[in-house]
Amino acid sequence: MVLRGYVPTSEETLQTLAALRLQSLNSDFSTHAPFPRLEELFPPHVLHARLPAPCRRTPTKCRGARLRAGLLAGGLWGQALAKQRAERDQRLRGRLREEGASTMAAIVEKWKLLQGMGRPEAMAAYVALVREWPGFGSTLFDVDLRAVSPRGQGGWAAGRQAVLTPLSPQSPVGAGPQRLWLGIGAKAVSLYKPGEPEPLDSFGYGRISSFGASDSSTFRLSVEDRDLLFETSQVDEIAQLLNTYLASAGARRPPRPQEPASGPPAPTPPPQGLCPTAGPWQHRPPVGSFHS
After folding, report:
1. Which CATH number is 138-152+175-252 given?
2. Where does 113-138 have alpha helices with state H?
C-alpha cells in the first residue's frame, strides 16, 4: 500500500520507510549489499509528480502556411511534431532518472544512520511510522462517488441522478462525480480524498443500514438518511469485506440479558432497509451488530 501511494505522508517519511526496508532486508549498509529497484522501495508516482506536465498545445504560428502548402507540408509538419515529442519524452526520461538517483541517494544516507538496528527493530519502526496515519489497518478501494441522495426520495433511479450533497457539515463533498478512496476498517467505513490523511467522512457500522450492488460496477451504501452510490471495479471485494467485518462485529457483541416473559412475544418488526422488500443485491447487517 505504501508503494501504491495509499499511505498519505511526506516524502521525508517515505524515504525513511525505504531506508528501514533496506535495513530489514540487508542489515547494515554495505556497498556490496543487493539493491532493490527504486520502485520496490519508493512510490513511483511521487517521482512522476515532480516532472512538468507535457505540453499539449500545438504551435499555431505556421498553421496558415501548412494549409496553403497542402498535404506535403502537412506531412512534414507531422514529422516535425513527432520529432518534438520524441525529444520531449527523452528529456522527461532523463529528468526522471535524475530524480530517481537523487531520491535513492537520500534513502541510502538514511539507511547508513540505521547501522546496528536489527531486523525486528527495523520492522517495528516501519510499522510505527505507518500507524501514524489514522487510516492504518483499512483496506482502500478506488471509487467514483456518483451521488449522495436522501433516503426514500424516488429510489434507485432517482439516486443515480441526484446532485451530490454534503456528507457532513465538517467535511463537505462538492458537486459532481469524485474520485475517492473508500476505506473499510474493522470499526468504520471512511471516505478519503486521495492523498489526504484525514477522511472526508467516517461511518461506524452502527450507522449503516444496508449495502449492495445493482450491477458489476455500481455499489450502494445506505447510511442513516442517505444513500451513497459508487462506481468501482471491485464491487464484490467491497461487499465481501463488509460482510466479514459485520459478521465479526456481531460475534463480538455480548448477548443482551433476557427479561422474564410476561405474555406472548411481541412480533418481530420488519427490517428497515433500502426498500420495503429487500432485493437480491442487498445485504443487511447481522442481527445485533448495528446497534449503538
Report:
1. 2.30.29.30
2. 119-130
Q: Read off the pTM.
A: 0.65
Distances (CA, A) of 21 to 52, 121, 132, 283: 30, 11, 17, 40
Which residues of the chain are in CATH 1.20.80.10 domains? 2-52+83-132
How many other CB atoms are found less than 10 A from the CB of residue 215? 9
Which residues of the chain form CATH 2.30.29.30? 138-152+175-252
**Which cell is 266 given?**
411481541
Other residues' Cβ atoms within 10 Å of the Cβ of residue 252? 9
**Cα–Cα nearest to 218, from 199, 194, 236:** 236
In tens digits, the chain (292 residues) has pLDDT values of 899 999 999 999 999 999 999 999 999 999 888 889 999 999 998 988 887 765 434 444 444 544 455 545 556 667 778 888 888 888 888 888 999 999 999 999 999 999 999 999 999 999 999 999 988 989 999 999 988 877 654 443 333 333 344 444 344 444 457 899 999 998 899 999 998 999 999 999 888 888 988 788 999 999 988 899 999 999 999 999 999 998 876 655 544 444 444 445 444 433 333 222 233 334 444 433 333 3
CATH class for domain 2-52+83-132?
mainly alpha
CA atoms within 13 A on the CB side of 200: 18
